[in-house]
Every structure is written in C-alpha cells, then in structure tokens.
Amino acid sequence: MSLPAIAIHSLVKRFGETTVLQDIDLEIPEGKVSCLIGPSGSGKSTLLRCLAFLEEPTSGMITIKGEALGFFENAGGKRERLPPAQIRTVRSKTGMVFQQFNLWPHMTALGNVAEALKTVRKVPKAEAEARAMAQLKKVGLENRAGHYPSQLSGGQQQRVAIARALALEPKIMLFDEPTSALDPELTGEVLNVMRDLAAEGMTMVVVTHEIGFAATVGQQISFLDHGRLLFSGPPTEIFAKPRHPRLDQFLDTYLDRGASMLA
Amino acid sequence: MTIKLFTLLMQAALYTLGISIVSIVIGFAIAILLSAAMLSGKGIYIAPARLFISFFRGVPLLVQLLLIYTLLPVIGINVPSIVAAIIGLSLCTAAYQAENLRGGFDAVPKGLVEAADVTGFNPRQTFFRIRVPIALRLTFPALVNEAIMILKSSSLVSVVGIIELTKMAQDLSSSTYLPIPIFASAGAIYLVINWAIALVAGRVERSLPKVTA
Lengths: 263, 213
What we know:
The complex is a heterodimer.
Chain A: E1 6-15, E2 18-28, E3 33-37, H1 44-51, E4 59-64, E5 67-68, E6 71-73, E7 79-81, H2 84-91, E8 94-97, H3 109-119, H4 125-138, H5 154-167, E9 172-176, H6 184-199, E10 203-207, H7 211-217, E11 220-225, E12 228-233, H8 235-239, H9 245-252
Helix pairs in contact in A: 3-4, 3-5, 4-5, 5-6
Chain B: H1 3-39, H2 43-58, H3 61-74, H4 81-106, H5 110-118, H6 123-153, H7 165-176, H8 179-207
C-alpha cells in the first residue's frame, strides 16, 4: 500500500458553536479522482477548504504526501502550528479551483497563469509566459491568452483558472464545485478538461453536484451529511443498489442533474 | 477684458494647477500609509490614523489653512506660504483619499486573495500584486473626484497669501472695475481644467480592465 496523496485524521472544524465537520477520517489515494458529494451545508466545501488550508481545522491532522499541513503533533502529542513558509511549501503540492473562478481581473488570461510562476517561483518572465501558454493550450484557450477575465465566458474563465493551478505543477488538484456557477451549456467544456486531467493520472479531489461526473470519472466517492462522512468507496459500490437510504434520498433531488442514469 | 488680463489669469491658474497636483500626489502617499494603518488591525496604528482622518475631515479647510499658517512659525518652523498651503491641502486630501482607499481595499473580493494564498503568495506579494492594483482600480473614480474637489478647494489658499486663480481674479476685478468678465473668465478656466481632468480620467478608466463582476 503506497502512501495516500492526502490523509485526514479525526478532523473537526467548528465555526464558533457550530460544528461543521465532525471526526472526518479519509484517505485520498494517489492518482485517483476522489469526489465529495452531499447536500448543501454538509461540510464538503469546508473539508476541501481545509485541505487547501483556507480554513484551519479546529482539531485533527491533515497530511499531504506524508507531510503535515499547517499543524503537527510534537513529541508531547500537542498540536503545534508550523511556520508560514513551511505551510506554503506543503500547500504548493496542491492546486485549487474555485466555484467563482477567482481569476485576477487586472491580469490577462496569460497573466493569471504566469503570475505565480513569476512572483512565487521567480521564473524569468519569458519562460513563465511560455509555460503559461502551454497550460492555456492544454485547456484549449491559447487564442484567448490576451483576454481579460471580464472578456471571457464563465466556462472559459474556469478553464483559465484550471490552467493557473496547473502551471505550478501541483501533485494534487482540488476542485470546489467547479461548475456550479456556470450555465448548464458551459459545464461540459470544464468537465471535459477535468476528464482529460483525470486520464493523465492527476490526483483530484472534487466537491461536486455533478453526480454524473462523479459516477463516471470518480474512483472514490465520499458522501457527507451534516458534517459527518457517512461512507466512502468506489462508485460501483456506492451507487449500486441497494443504496444507503440517505444517499437514495439525496439522489432523488438530483435526478435532473445527470443522476438519472443511475435511477 | 484685455489679452493682458487674461494672461495674468492664466499665469495664476498655473499656480492653482501646480499646488493642486503636488497636494494630490503628497496626499495620496500619506493616504496609502493611513489606509495601511487602518487595515493593520492593530489599535496602535488605527487610533492615530482615525484621529488624523476625523480631524482633517471634520475641520473646515479654511480653518486648517489658517491654523497651519499661524501655527508653524510659533513652533519655530518658518516656511514660505506656498509650502504651508501645500501642507494644508495635502493633509486634508489625505484624509479623504485614505477613506476611499480603505473602501477599495475592503471591496477586493476575498476569493481573489484566497486564489493568491493557494498559489503560494506570501502576504506581501498578495498585497502588492493583487490587493493594491485592484483597490486602486476600484477607487480610481473617487480619486478623480477628489482631485477635482482639491483643484476647486485650492481657491482657499489665497488666505495664506498665495495669488492663485481666484485671488488674482479678485485683485484684477478691484483694480479694473471689471468684475463680471474677470470672474466669468476665472470660472471658465476652472471649468476647462476640470473638464480636461474628467476627460483624461474617463479615457484611462475605459482603458483599464474591468475589475468588478
């Protein structure tokens, strides 16, 4: 058994009095597509944001490729915060794609993709732009390199955002509902890029409402409900009948979102 | 109304323009420091910045100018009156611009900062590469507004002995007994300058990429 890409141990996240994630234990296997599904407010996005260290876990541990993310347990078993530079190093193993794209509006598509290479990795401008262009080509947008985000469709913006994350050559890609802000006819182009990425063997963690995508591309499906991980497993197991009643109930509400194939 | 009178007015208008531009630029630099203090989250920086802003927004500019002009020599600082005028205008516009900038920084969408965080930017890189350029674009129209306000407010610096456009017009009108053509000309000069500022600013604004959804 090789080291999991991500290991989550007894993760708890509270916002004030509200417990959003309760004792999550999950291992994300290397080179697989892992989908987090569940109703709104189930905590799946918060879990993903913890993996990107955009939210700090209240307790519990996350390791990325065996390295502690944000906190480590010292010899006395107490949780200690790692220094910011160390956090950035571990974080750099992951790339993240947001529901709202979050492209930097003052930079062109090429600028968005090249920016971190230049600013963070100190790659010379010409080389950074050449590498950025290669990523744009990969998502089929090399002819939009000079466009600003406001001049691109939602689907194009999200593909640029994927290229931006890929430019830093992450080992793991995190997707937070990448198609939820898109018109239905634009979701396909984004899902296709994600399928290509999966076919290349990229480790992916995808929070999604696209049950069809989860069932066909996902290799590990985790179902969250009320901050708890109810179950996790390969899609053939999870979606096969008889299904967990809570999942059945959830899928009923998603029949019009690509889940009808499973009915 | 002769060519000579108009030339005198135009020369005075150069003073108006010069004092205003210098004050806007100095005020902007101070405003960046003030807004950084306001956003620092540390009481030790926030309190003096708040005090500064509430004083310079709350006291009439005319009073500020008179106060600075009379106070500086008392505390042993002897500066030409044009310097006192620039100090007064700069401090006043700094207070307004600081509030504009703070609003701009607050309006930078959180997701854009998160996108920088996850791509490994350190806080300083995020500030200069993401927050500052977006905040500046968001506050640009307010900055232009403030520039126009300062240009008009600069007529007040005549109280410290500067012969700028308004003062020149007053002096010429009392020596020539031609108040209406002279004041009309002065008004037209202000109007043309501000119209030019608005025109250029509009061009610049349209050339910048849209940063709002």
